[in-house]
């Protein structure tokens, strides 16, 4: 008897995962995230001063569910194409969260050339659909 229930149980456990995957929220049409600093092509000595700009939406701390808000994320040497947009963004050195609602930060990056991209995501660290992402910029740290 219990064996007959297994496929049903398996199907039921899949439902929440599917619901989550489909649960990306549309951003306002004019939503835009962009770098105020650094500038594309900039060469920087020492810590990088990151200033993140946002239009058409508001910044709220992670976990705070208010319509048309979210928090900033920085992708370092990765782009949106490398991210599973249906999942919560992992917390790594290459995928940084500013869950306190920060719009500025100081980054210590190793010397060399790096690409940066901003990805604005919702209170669950899940992307909007379509994603609210900045241009990819390239900087050189000396
Ligand atoms: Cu986050």
What would the keywords be for this entry?
globular, six-stranded mixed β-sheet, three-stranded antiparallel β-sheet, 14% helix, Immunoglobulin-like, binds copper (II) ion, 1 helix, mainly beta, 142 residues
Q: Which CATH class is shown?
A: Mainly Beta
Strand-pairing-aware structural class = mainly beta
- What pattern of helices and strands is seen along the backbone? HEEEEEEEEEEE
Radius of gyration: 18 Å
| Helical proportion, percent range | 10-25%
- Note the total helix count: 1
How would you describe the shape? Answer: globular
**Beta content:** 35-45%
CATH topology: Immunoglobulin-like
Task: Give the SSE map.
Blueprint: H1 2-21, E1 32-37, E2 43-44, E3 48-55, E4 58-59, E5 69-70, E6 73-76, E7 95-97, E8 104-107, E9 112-121, E10 127-133, E11 137-141
Parallel strand pairs: 2-11, 4-5
Antiparallel strand pairs: 1-3, 3-8, 6-7, 6-9, 9-10, 9-11
This protein binds copper (II) ion.
What does this structure look like?
The structure is a single chain. Mean pLDDT is 90; it is low at 8-19. Helix content is 14%, strand content 37%. It is mainly beta and 142 residues long. The chain is built from 1 helix and 11 strands, in the order H-E-E-E-E-E-E-E-E-E-E-E. Strand 9 (112-121) and strand 10 form a beta hairpin. Strands 2, 6, 7, 9, 10 and 11 form a 6-stranded mixed β-sheet that branches. Strands 1-3-8 form a 3-stranded antiparallel β-sheet, with no helix packed on it. Strands 4-5 form a two-stranded parallel ribbon. The structure holds copper (II) ion (CU). Copper (II) ion is lined by residues 62, 71, 73, 89, 97, 99, 121, 125. Copper (II) ion (CU) is lined by residues 62, 71, 73, 89, 97, 99, 121, 125.
């Amino acid at each position: 008897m219990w064996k007959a229930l297994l496929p049903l149980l398996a199907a039921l456990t899949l439902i929440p995962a599917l619901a989550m995957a489909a649960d990306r929220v549309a951003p306002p049409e004019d939503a835009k995230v962009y770098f105020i600093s650094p500038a594309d092509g900039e060469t920087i000595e020492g810590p990088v001063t990151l200033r993140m700009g946002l239009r058409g939406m508001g910044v709220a701390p992670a976990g705070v569910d208010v319509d048309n808000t979210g928090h900033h994320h920085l992708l370092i040497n990765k782009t949106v194409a490398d991210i599973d947009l249906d999942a919560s963004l992992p917390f790594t050195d290459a995928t940084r969260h500013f869950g306190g609602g920060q719009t500025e930060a100081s980054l210590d990056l190793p010397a060399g050339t790096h690409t940066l991209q901003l990805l604005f995501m919702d209170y669950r660290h899940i992307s909007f659909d379509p994603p609210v992402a900045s241009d990819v910029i390239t900087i050189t740290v000396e």
